[in-house]
Structures are given as C-alpha cells and as structure tokens.
Specification:
alpha/beta, 223 residues, Rossmann fold, 7 helices, five-stranded parallel sheet, single chain
Length: 223
C-alpha cells in the first residue's frame, strides 16, 4: 500500500489516473491552488488534455505558527474562519482582521503576477476539478470550495493526493466528489508524505501555467 509520493509531479500523475473518467469529456477545467497545488494540477490537466488555471486561496495562520490554519480567504473575498480554534487558542479579533487584509493583498499580488490582465476562467456549467498538493486542517480548501460553488459549476470535484480522514470527510460534504488516494490516520503535515517537498516558486507556477495554455490552445485547434 502506498505510504508517500516521490514529489508533486508523481502525485499529480497518480491523481490523473483516478480522474481518467473525465478523459474526453467536454467542459472540464482543472484549477490548482498556488503554489504547490499548481504542480500537481499541471500533471492532472496534461494527462486529461483539459485547460489549467489557478484559484488563489490563502490560509490565515495561527500567531507564531503560520502553517496551522485557523481560517482562509478566497480570491473572490470569501472568508472562512475556524471560530472554535480561534476561541480555544485565544486569538484576538484584531489579529484575525489584520491577517484577512494581509492575505487579500497577497492574493491581489499573485493574481496580477500569474494572470496579468487575463480574465479568470468561466466556471458556470463546467466540471471544475480543484487540485492541491494535500489537505491538513481543510480550512483553505473549504473556503475555496465554497467560493467556487457560488460560480455554479456543473460538477465540483476535489482532487488531492493526501489528507487526514476527518478533513476529507468534512470536505466531502462540500464537493460533489472527492478523490484522495492517501488518507492516513497518523497525520502531522502534508510534507511528511512526500520524499521531496521543496517550496514551489512564483516562477515555476508561471512557467507551468504558460505550458498549460499552450496545450489548451493546441487541443482547441484540433477540435
């Protein structure tokens, strides 16, 4: 039984196999959550021969432990907060609001960098496959799914290589379908399930999006 992935590229190829039922179907788009999720999404979109784009959601981290999510902000402004965690750890409302504004600014920066003046993709009546390199608490992914649902996709599929069972169960209530090959009980961080888990750069994301745009244009020309 698989216990880890070599890197994000291998994880994406394995996810693509699980999503092979989408091969040849019209109106499918793959959205990666930057940065690491775009690497996984690239492999999925390439295998399926469908368009690749990004959907930017930023986690709101715990004070002094930014990797521990207590909420998230999506690029359309949707905010999801883990109020129970915020109360339990005594996180101030001022901190939360400042983090929301800081992450909104970072979303704007990344949107400009990754997409420039290019408008976002049309998602209404599309089969949308949301991809990340893994799920921990699920807060970031939950905010993303709720924001995407507002755009009325035909089907909303979440595809992630790894996540703890409780988070995956929670997210299954938000997505129409969840693909997650690895759901270990003993879970501390997404990176523990990859042999190689280096940080993905903005330049890598931009390069993958450009390559994705090239094959999308080629596929469109063949139709």
């Amino acid at each position: 039984m698989r216990k880890y992935y070599r890197d994000r590229h291998e994880a994406g190829r394995i996810l693509a196999q699980k999503l092979s039922f989408l091969q040849g179907k019209p109106d499918v788009i793959v959205l990666g959550i930057p940065r690491g999720g775009v690497v996984v999404a690239y492999e999925v979109a390439r295998a399926l021969g469908v368009p690749l784009d990004v959907y930017i959601t930023r986690k709101i981290g715990m004070p002094y432990n930014p990797e521990f999510a207590i909420g998230a902000v999506a690029s359309d402004g949707t905010v999801y907060l883990e109020r129970d965690l915020i109360r339990r750890f005594g996180v101030s409302e001022r901190y939360v609001q400042e983090e929301i504004e800081r992450q909104r600014r970072e979303i704007e920066r990344r949107m400009t960098k990754y997409r420039g003046d290019r408008p976002g993709p049309k998602l209404t009546d599309q089969t949308v496959v949301l991809v990340d390199d893994g799920v921990a608490t699920g807060a970031t992914t939950l905010a993303t799914l709720r924001a995407l649902r507002q755009q009325k996709p035909k089907e909303l599929i979440l595809a992630v290589p790894v996540g703890p069972p409780d988070a995956i169960a929670m997210l299954s209530q938000e997505a129409d379908r969840v693909i997650c090959p690895l759901t270990p009980e003993a879970f501390w961080a997404v990176g523990q399930f990859y042999a190689f888990f280096a940080q993905t750069t903005d330049e890598e994301v931009m390069n993958l999006l450009e390559r994705g745009a090239e094959w999308s244009e080629s596929e469109e020309a063949r139709r």
